[in-house]
From TrEMBL:
GO biological process, alphabetically ordered: pyridoxine biosynthetic process
Similarity remark: Belongs to the pyridoxamine 5'-phosphate oxidase family.
Protein name per the record: Pyridoxine/pyridoxamine 5'-phosphate oxidase
Sorted UniProt keywords: Flavoprotein, FMN, Oxidoreductase, Pyridoxine biosynthesis
Protein's UniProt keywords contain Oxidoreductase: yes
Cofactor: how and how many bound: Binds 1 FMN per subunit.
PROSITE patterns linked to this entry: PYRIDOX_OXIDASE
Positions annotated to bind substrate: R7, R8, D9, Y10, K66, Y123, R127, S131, R191, L192, H193
Positions annotated to bind FMN: R61, I62, V63, L64, L65, K66, F76, T77, K83, Q105, Q140, S141, W185, R195
Originating organism: Pseudidiomarina sediminum
Designated gene of the protein: pdxH
UniProt-listed InterPro entries: Pyridox_Oxase (IPR000659), Pyridox_Oxase_CS (IPR019740), Pyridox_Oxase_N (IPR011576), Pyridoxamine_oxidase_dimer_C (IPR019576), Split_barrel_FMN-bd (IPR012349)
Residue ranges annotated for the Pyridoxamine 5'-phosphate oxidase N-terminal domain, each copy included: 39-157
Length: 213
């Protein structure tokens, strides 16, 4: 399979310093709202979460953004999963949104921490009942003999909690990523892509600079 000729031009838009806002979270919100409104994107909340274990081995997976504000970015998962083990060993993580139909990418780096249990409980019980049962049925990242065994566990829990509130698993909850770095990437003509980075300074301000593509 030859991929040398698999390419396309990037001419949809340009990114200029005078169009950027000083706060990268506000800049993110502007791009995110536009991505949500785009018919070209099926799931703008999906991002790649990169973690590394105690030995420095990196791991990546897709997770879904569930909230963001001035403090950072929130997603939910099982704390005893592989990603949870990585985070316990190394709280430095990276996020990557690839909105390729819009010829845009956003990279974010920072430190991660657990959200409080009340926040996790509120979100857990806002989910569809089937999703709550799925979280309770799955010991995420642990081996299992077959899908039949997993579905049997799901159906057993469905019967057990019929007409009752489903308890949130003790090992389940949210994380918040506290950003210290952003890169906004806009595809450019002649492969001269526009790249701007924000770096958090000691006084809490953000330093912005353009990078070469």
């Amino acid at each position: 399979m030859k991929l040398h000729d698999e390419r396309r031009d990037y001419e949809r838009a340009q990114l200029r310093r005078d169009t950027l806002v000083a706060d990268p979270l506000v800049q993110f919100e502007q791009w995110f709202c536009a991505a949500k409104e785009s018919a070209a994107l099926a799931d703008p909340t999906a991002f790649t979460l990169a973690t590394a274990n105690a030995q420095g081995q990196p791991h990546q997976r897709i997770v879904l953004l569930k909230d963001f504000d001035a403090e950072g970015f929130v997603f939910f998962t099982n704390y005893t999963s592989d990603k949870g083990a990585d985070i316990a060993a190394n709280p430095q993580v990276a996020m990557h949104f690839a909105w390729l139909p819009l010829e845009q990418q956003i990279r974010i780096e920072g430190r991660i921490e657990k959200v409080d249990r009340a926040t996790s409980e509120a979100y857990f019980h806002s989910r569809p009942r089937e999703s709550q049962l799925g979280a309770l049925a799955s010991a995420q990242s642990q081996p299992i003999t077959s899908r039949d065994d997993l579905e049997a566990r799901y159906h057993e829990l469905t019967e057990r909690y019929q007409g009752q509130e489903i308890p949130m698993p003790e090992s389940w909850g949210g994380y918040r990523i506290l950003p210290s770095f952003f890169e906004f990437w806009q595809g450019g003509k002649y492969r001269l892509h526009d790249r701007f980075v924000y770096r958090l300074q000691a006084d809490g301000s953000w330093h912005i600079e353009r990078l070469q593509p």
